[in-house]
Design brief:
12 helices, 2 domains, Lyase, Ornithine Decarboxylase, Chain A, domain 1, TIM Barrel, 8-stranded parallel beta barrel, alpha/beta, globular, 9-stranded mixed sheet
Length: 417
């Protein structure tokens, strides 16, 4: 979003205030030009013979976004059978979908197997059971490298106490299971966490994963997961993707030469591809002055964007209704009936009731984590593509809240007189 002639504008000159008027608030808006730029940046960062970028659709799973990344040439990273089915419905070929579940039943994994997608297994018990299902289908192994990485402990998934992955110290047991079942391994995978700043963390993990990869003689790919940090505010530090690309490409190419085969280098970015493309527009319901704080209360809450309350995540907030207003300090809060805060003591242009606030970096893990808490409706979604705004999800109604509820016959009909 840029400020031009005292107006905030999205890609192609689209005015977010017009979108707020047309589609009402609260409203999620995504700019496809930013998604495409981020995808191309990843592709250009790595100099290897075979590269595959699998979009981690848990970040933002609207089927229109999936179709968009398919058009760029991406594959799909999925973590549930529902995401697998969304990917197939979006037109992805089964072999372009990798399914990496955690703590699911063997029944769900069998369902994914029958759909023909690639299977990534992070549990020795499931690996053994999978061998009984179909030992002719090659699998990927998710490795836990025992690296503490990520923005906070809730999004660090590669440490020794994590529920994710098979420990690097359990590889001898993995090989015994493979020998007993006849299973083949086509890929090895790791994912250490999200919001990783230092390329050295990736490179340290790469050495661990590449060392394990030498134990498997029929690999087709190595998947390094993702977790690249994006900036959330002005001056914020982000992962130096270009530096990582140069160093990891050199190491990966050398490994392939030693391995005797050109393997595919895989990544599964989600936040990196869509976070900065998203804007959440909300209308100010009330400005409330207390003895110490000025609150700006908006027509949304943690039910629509939970990251600040769940992760203490910082999201930049802009009053797009008054680009030239005098600066004041506000705490922006929601309408949910508990502590529900988007930003504390934020300096922004003077806010009046009815103004539209924009919460930035709302493309990843925002709508996808939204709920109907307090029986509130989930908002609409709009995609700005090539200068045109497209509604890609309508706003919910009371019918949506009630459609899965069943009226049980708990009480006798009232007698009529």
């Amino acid at each position: 979003m840029i400020l031009e002639n005292n107006r905030y504008l999205l890609g192609g000159g689209v005015d977010p205030l017009v979108l707020a008027e047309q589609y009402d608030c609260p409203l999620y808006v995504y700019d496809s030009a930013i998604m495409e730029k981020q995808y191309k940046r990843m592709v250009n960062a790595f100099n290897v013979k075979s590269l595959k970028i699998n979009y981690a659709c848990k970040a933002l799973s609207n089927i229109n976004i999936l179709k968009l990344f398919k058009s760029y040439g991406a594959g799909l990273d999925t973590v549930s059978i529902q995401e697998v089915k969304l990917g197939l419905k979006a037109g992805f070929a089964p072999q372009d979908i990798i399914y990496t579940p955690n703590c699911v039943s063997i029944d769900e994994i069998e369902e994914a197997l029958n759909l023909g997608v690639r299977i990534n297994i992070d549990n020795i018990s499931i690996l053994e059971q999978f061998g009984d299902l179909d030992a002719n289908v090659p699998v990927c192994i998710r490795v836990n490298p025992h690296i503490m990485a990520g923005g906070n402990n809730k999004i660090s998934v590669g440490h020794i106490d994590s529920k994710f992955g098979i420990s690097i110290h359990q590889m001898p047991l993995v090989h015994r299971v493979l020998d007993a079942t006849g299973l083949k391994v086509e890929g090895v995978h790791m994912h250490t966490g999200s919001d990783i700043l230092d390329p050295e963390v990736f490179l340290a993990g790469a050495e661990i994963l590449l060392n394990i990869a030498t134990e498997f003689k029929e690999l087709e790919f190595i998947d390094f997961g993702s977790g690249f940090k994006v900036p959330y505010k002005e001056g914020d530090i982000a992962t130096d993707l270009e530096e990582l690309g140069i160093r990891l490409s050199e190491r990966f190419n050398k490994f392939c030469e030693e391995y005797g085969k050109d393997l595919t280098l895989m990544f599964e970015p989600g936040k990196f591809l869509v976070s900065e493309s998203g804007y959440f527009l909300a209308r100010v319901n009330v400005v409330k002055q207390t003895t110490s704080t000025v609150f700006a209360g908006i027509d949304s809450g943690l039910n629509h964007l939970i990251r600040p309350m769940l992760y203490n995540a910082y999201h930049k907030i802009t009053n797009i209704s008054r680009p030239t207003g005098k600066n004041r300090i506000y705490t922006v809060v929601g309408y949910i009936c508990e502590t529900d805060t988007f930003g504390i003591n934020r300096r922004m242009n003077e806010i009046q009731e009815g103004d539209i606030l924009c919460i930035h970096n709302a493309g990843a893990y925002c709508y996808s984590m939204a709920s109907n808490y307090n029986s509130r409706f989930r908002p609409a979604e709009v995609l700005v593509h090539q200068g045109q705004a497209h509604l890609i999800r309508r706003r919910e109604t009371m019918d949506d809240l009630l459609k899965t509820q069943v009226m049980a016959e708990l009480f006798e009909p009232e007698a009529t007189i």
